[in-house]
Amino acid sequence: MSKPSKSKSTNKDQYSRLVDLLEEQPDIAKGFAKCNASPYWNSVAAELNSLGPPTKDSTAWKKVWFDWKSNTKRKLAHNRREQFATGGGPSKFIELTALEERVVVLAGLAPAVEGIADTCSFGLEPSANQSIHDSGESASIEDNRIPEDRANENNETHTSKKRRTSMHTLLETQVQNQATFHDSVTNILKCFEKKTADLVHYNRQISKQLENINETINNVLMENQRHNLELERINLEKLKIKKRILEMELSRLQ
To answer: Which DSSP category does 142 fall into?
Structure first.
């Protein structure tokens, strides 16, 4: 890896390529990656450094992306406050560049600022005193004022940083819990599927055994019936013999 340069000004091509690369990995862009993202960021750093100067390591490029998202989110929040502001005066809306619009979509910043329809909000309200150090000019990348430099100029307080870290940790915990729940449900369904297959197999065996038992019972009944018929025939023959003996004795007495 090349040695990071002293220049901090990320150039336009690097910003554009960073968005291109992260659009291929939206989970990593949103910070919801379920796997180790370090190898990915190493590859991103190598490609962005090839477009330098400046050159940075993977950790620094991750910070560039985080600061860029934070700065763009602050602009959205400012515009939303201006939208609902009362009173006269000139509009103080901050126009986003085309690249920043892609960041809004990629990082899912609009729902985070405006909220999701038909849901209840929770957590701490954003500080009404949070200032946006912007002169009203378009905060484009073309003017060589990079988001991470402007983020440093905003001089965020320790409380707001701690709040963002807490919310990020909460989101990561929710994602991990959902992944764990999904794995648990999947394992339960697989176990249920196996148990069902075993039950079907055992039911087939029981059905086959019942068929064999029914066949055996039928054979026994038929044999008993044949045996009874044979006994009746033998008894009838005995009666016939006794009758003949009696007839012979009567004939001799006469």
So the answer is: G
